């Protein structure tokens, strides 16, 4: 389980995380939702250790991450996988080499064993046929799937996804959402996804955290998100014409 | 402005602290060194070759034109070409040319990786990205650029020889006598030492500017320009200091 307590983060004068406390549940897909500029990405990256925080604590199980030395912190990092917004695949490497990259560094396996593991992960995301292609030869959805394969190759306990379906067509977006959700349950990972896509929320949102202007405004699950009386959340959830139409008959 | 400069210098040294650590896997490190040698070193040879041959030829024409006095022996043309090439052109000028070619390449490559979160992805895996990306470049460029310098020197001499042979402004024997006249082997050592220093500056400064956080693609171009300006200034300052230290 990952928990954050009273964290603050500012860039210059602008406060982007304002006293945020939340517990992300183990073995579930935890979604951080909110409008653009609400602090979702900063919160996700702070939890993942890519942004430092100004105040507060971040716990992995019962261990406060800032108290760890660099070696111990590295061990925690090895238990994490991350899917970035633009997939962040290495341009100089093929899909297989991208997935194999962490194995090259942190295992003493032979090349055949590393390739076997990389191929297994590519197979899991239904992309084995593209294993020898470079990122520039792959579509956005395929790049995301390679990114997922790379994120799970080390069998992580924690999976972080930064807007996994941004820039994808609705069908591919749903495919990616379900793939992440399936992997979360299959490997019992603590998954944190940052999104503003309501389709994702309704499809895979086992735990939801709503941020507005850097503050946590609401917490719940997909079953309760439509019944909330939080004004900001309702503005966010029922922003689209289709959502408003669906709400009206209720 | 002064505060910002000192902050930048501080950040540079913090990055260097990350760069100069033991590589995670030596096998990967040596493989990267070979890749970088091919990308940053071998690929520079045609450009340096063309420029060096032209400069060698131009030096012969200019020197011959300026010493038409009958009291000055013609063999001084060869002597002047050799001294100009080894003391300044093949190390300092070639380093400035490489700052443009290699420096901008490193800065934009790393800048793009920063902007597209590839560096963040490495950090998330627990990999020291600065060490993985920059140290092999430092090692390969610092080892290979001195060879490029020697190559430039030799090709410059050949360029001079070609123009002498084609125009006949002096005889080939006068040119070769000048090349061998009062030769001091220490000048080669001096030029090699300078080149190693300049290579270090080219790689680390361009990598540093590439490594700085970026908000958009325009910043990649800006970082590349800034890095080349900084490298040129640092090369000229260190040229002055090394010359004073080694030749005075």
Question: Biggest interface in this structure?
Answer: A-B, 25 and 15 residues
Shape of chain B from CA axes?
elongated
Query: Structurally, how many domains make up the residues of chain A?
Result: 1
Number of strands of chain B: 0
Distance between the termini of chain A: 36 Å
Total count of helical runs of at least 4 residues of chain B? 9
Supply the CATH architecture of chain A.
3-Layer(aba) Sandwich
Strand content of chain B: under 5%
Strand order of the largest sheet of chain A: 6-7-8-3-9-10
Q: Under CATH, the topology of chain A is which?
A: Rossmann fold
Strand content of chain A: 15-25%
Q: Would you identify the regions of chain B where 5 or more consecutive residues have pLDDT less than 50?
A: none
Global mean pLDDT of chain A:
89
Helix content of chain A: 25-40%
Total strands of chain A: the figure is: 10
Structural class of chain B comes to: mainly alpha
* Biggest sheet details of chain B: none
The largest sheet of chain A, given as strand count, sense and whether it forms a barrel, is: 6 strands, mixed
**How many distinct folded domains of chain B?**
1
Secondary-structure element sequence of chain B?
HHHHHHHHH
Low-confidence region ranges of chain A: none
